[in-house]
Amino acid sequence: MLVKHGMNHLTVLNSARNHKLATSLAVLRRQQFLTRVLGVRGEDRMQDPKFEADADNILRAITPVLDPTRHKGQAGKIAVIGGCREYTGAPYFAAISALKIGADLSHVFCTKDAASVIKSYSPELIVHPVLEESYSVGDRDKDHISRNVVAEVDKWMERFDCLVVGPGLGRDPFLLDCVSEIMKQARQSNVPIVVDGDGLFLVTNSLELVSGYPLAILTPNVYEYKRLVQKVLNCEVNDQDAHGQLLLLAKQIGGVTILRKGKSDLVSDGEIVKSVSIYGSPRRCGGQGDILSGSVAVFLSWARQCILADEGNLSISPTNPTILGCIAGSALLRKAASLAFENRKRSTLTTDIIECLGISLEDICPAC
Ligand SMILES: NC(=O)C1=CN([C@@H]2O[C@H](COP(=O)(O)OP(=O)(O)OC[C@H]3O[C@@H](n4cnc5c(N)ncnc54)[C@H](O)[C@@H]3O)[C@@H](O)[C@H]2O)[C@@H](O)CC1
Ligand SMILES: Nc1ncnc2c1ncn2[C@@H]1O[C@H](COP(=O)(O)OP(=O)(O)OP(=O)(O)O)[C@@H](O)[C@H]1O
Ligand SMILES: [Mg+2]
């Protein structure tokens, strides 16, 4: 085929090398330009040490001691809204991560197709097959079905310390309408919401669901962040002023907390910006964001408990529980990913990282 086009392997290799060289030169020139203009390399500004969170101390401060007088439920009850025909892994990863970190109960609200599959992954999860997609509803009374779906989740709502909306949710319009109603109920009950994956697709198109809700956390990956920036700020992602843009974005959505995932994780509530740059893993296998959303939900719940118990005298800063939850979740995931990679190298998978969550937390705050 190559010969047919008048190229042999050597010419292809040379042209590939030349292309690589030209790209490297272009990157170098751009970095030199930024260094001249900004005084610091653009990428490095995202890892400026003065913004780096004191993640270990935060983890120590908010992780509850294993007190024998506590009863089941006090270490956290998390619910994941997600899981459909296509995706069963994502809600499982989020929900099981919450348990592995130390939450007492982890629920999953998903479609009927997904439920038995998720149950078969683990008997530890409480799985509710309540969500419906358009294909299963057909011409039946959609209003009636929607009311039932929302009521099924709502009867549990008061018990939850945090909802995670989106891992493996899919994008079916009827299902997303029901989830919008569930989010409104959660907000009315003052239940914190971590929005991830397809939940971000929903929220980006219906910002009013989270706008002005201080207990909402958005955890966008690179594409989800791009879509959010385009929608809210009407511009492109600006990595030269990543902190400023994230601050502005969080402020524009009424002070929600945003955890921008990437080489460094950046967190802002519209007032401050913090970064977590602990070395994680070079493996980018799918599912790591799901571990993060489940972890953030648990740490946010623990941070809120701590703040209530200490009546605001927490010895760490910042003190916003959503920011604390994001920092703790991000740091723990990165430590676990690093440990898993040490053992598994290129074959590191999300399930390997989940197995390292416990030991990674143990290293920072021993159970006894
Ligand atoms: N095992 C599982 O069940 C998993 C399910 N997941 C779920 O899958 C659903 C979809 O999430 P994804 O993060 O995969 O989202 P997308 O389906 O939007 O993106 C999938 C991939 O497509 C590419 N892509 C997306 N937008 C792009 C763009 N604008 N330009 C170029 N490339 C682009 C990227 O490589 C991206 O990682 C979510 O519900 C998520 O929670 C993921 O969490 C991964 C694991
Ligand atoms: N380039 C990177 N270098 C180091 N860590 C990264 C990098 N990109 C992402 N991460 C880490 O991986 C975690 C998951 O981020 P990622 O962007 O993979 O999420 P995601 O695409 O939503 O994942 P999922 O597949 O679960 O949907 C983040 O907390 C982040 O710390
Ligand atoms: Mg994701």
From TrEMBL:
Q: Which cofactor is recorded for it?
A: Mg(2+)
Full protein name:
ATP-dependent (S)-NAD(P)H-hydrate dehydratase
Q: Name one GO molecular function term.
A: ATP-dependent NAD(P)H-hydrate dehydratase activity
Q: Where is ATP annotated to bind?
A: 261-265, 280-289
Positions of the YjeF C-terminal domain: 55-364
Q: Does the keyword Lyase apply?
A: yes
Assigned keywords, A-Z: ATP-binding, Lyase, NAD, NADP, Nucleotide-binding, Phosphoprotein
Q: Mind telling me which InterPro entries this protein's record contains? A: CARKD (IPR000631), Ribokinase-like (IPR029056)
Taxonomy, top ranks, is: Eukaryota, Viridiplantae, Streptophyta, Embryophyta, Tracheophyta
Q: Entry's SUPFAM superfamilies?
A: Ribokinase-like (SSF53613)
According to UniProt, the reaction catalysed is: (6S)-NADHX + ATP = ADP + phosphate + NADH + H(+); (6S)-NADPHX + ATP = ADP + phosphate + NADPH + H(+)
Identify the EC number(s).
Answer: 4.2.1.93
CDD domains given in the database record: YXKO-related (cd01171)
PROSITE patterns noted in UniProt: YJEF_C_3
Positions contributing to (6S)-NADPHX binding: 168, 221-227, 290
The processes (GO biological process) annotated in the record are: metabolite repair; nicotinamide nucleotide metabolic process
Q: Which family does it belong to?
A: Belongs to the NnrD/CARKD family.
**Is Lyase among this UniProt entry's keywords?**
yes
User: Which PANTHER family does the entry link to?
Assistant: ATP-DEPENDENT (S)-NAD(P)H-HYDRATE DEHYDRATASE, ATP-DEPENDENT (S)-NAD(P)H-HYDRATE DEHYDRATASE FAMILY MEMBER
Q: Note the coiled coil stretches, chain numbering.
A: none
User: What role does it play?
Assistant: Catalyzes the dehydration of the S-form of NAD(P)HX at the expense of ATP, which is converted to ADP. Together with NAD(P)HX epimerase, which catalyzes the epimerization of the S- and R-forms, the enzyme allows the repair of both epimers of NAD(P)HX, a damaged form of NAD(P)H that is a result of enzymatic or heat-dependent hydration.
